[in-house]
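Example A, followed by Example B.
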Amino acid sequence: MYEVEIKNLQTKARIGIKPQERKRFQKLLITLRFNYKIKNRSNLDNIKYLKDYSSIVKFLKLFVENSKYKSLERLVFECSNSLQKNFKIKNISICVNKIEVAKRYKCESLSVKK
């Protein structure tokens, strides 16, 4: 079993419960973890059997930037479902951190994880 981690991917979204929060983009950091199996060691160099990290990162950034969810919880849920569906990956752990809001509250992180 191989575990992949894409840590602190910087992106942005219009997100927030209050309408004024959604007026402008907010910076987000996203950490995605998932694992998958490769049945045969001879396939370790064959892209056909590997996950395309570049495609996953591009998809995730685009998905988040085009999202219109109000809560981090909904964003995390929808990201997870979309990644499972589009890339056939399971055991997803995704964490979204609102870094600007965290700074405002003088804390290191304000995030939601599933």
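Example B, a separate protein, is given below in the same form.
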Amino acid sequence: MSCVRKAELIAGLYQALTGEAFSDATDRAFGRGWIEAHDRKEAEENISRLDAARIVHLFLLKEAGIPDLTDISGAAVLRDLYDCRVCVNHIAQVYLRGLIAAAEIEGISKEKFLIFDGKASLTDEDAVRIYERIRCIKQDS
């Protein structure tokens, strides 16, 4: 399973929304305010699912003009939703829109539950799902 670099995700988001490839996608995203300085500096590094949730969520707001879902209570099924309190809305928005799926894991007593697994790296499969869903969201809006 291969991991995705930040620059790849950013370029892929633009391409999914506009159908165009931008060679300066990271600089463009920074200029438009949906990535931060450290994202530009770390553009060639693998991206975590937490960073991907933040970037994808801000992309939806600032580039695609898609407002936040008002009811995010459905994301409460994610056991690790509040592990990063400033990430809660980012995670909830991308999870509830089907952009980044949860992982099902087995607990100590063999019960299964869902986690977002934010510290894990975003995989190629995750990225493909994001791009496909963005195309669908774009068509629906």
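On Example B: Helices lie at 6-18, 25-32, 37-41, 49-62, 88-96, 124-140.
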